[in-house]
Amino acid sequence: MATTLRPAVRASHLKDDLWALDELGPAGARVRARLEAAELATIEAASKTEHLPLSLNARMAEAVFAEAGEKGARLWATSSFLHSLDGFWKPLFLGLTRAISPSPGLLFKAFPQGWSTTYRDCGDVTVSHPEAGLTRIAVKGLPPELRTEAFLTAVCGTLEGAFWISKYSGRATVEPRAPDAPGATWRVEWKAGD
Hints:
Blueprint: E1 8-10, H1 11-20, H2 26-34, H3 37-45, E2 51-53, H4 54-84, H5 90-100, H6 104-108, H7 111-118, E3 119-120, E4 124-131, E5 134-140, H8 149-160, E6 168-174, E7 183-192
Antiparallel strand pairs: 1-2, 1-3, 4-5, 5-7, 6-7
Helix pairs in contact: 1-4, 2-4, 4-8
């Protein structure tokens, strides 16, 4: 009998998200207090490759947004993304990206693969570059749990992680959308850093 896959998130991502709460200072402790002990224990006990319920990701994003606002949600997601690069090869990777300084447009080409590695059955991502210094990243088929302002804002922070590993600066925003629409588009504007 075939089993139907449900939308889920890889535990390694949630572990990075938990780690990044400390980057929020006192707000991070308040976020942890908003989460149930069983939720935290589930994340901490999971193997990195295990898939966990999407609700854990959504609840954490909501708690971060409630306690730290938009700025905190962006910082949290950027910190989580950068932490996900930790490991033996991180210094080499960061050194190469800073030396070669690939454009954010090139870095964003990897986003669909990153999305499908992190999220299971959570929509399809496309990347386009309508003009110099502008990238649009669209997702169709978002599960209801990921359609919130909190989650979509956090993705802006993940995308802005590109500016920490390159010689570019910029900003990601969510394009206007109908509430609870099953898709979203992020607009990322960027330029060479000073």
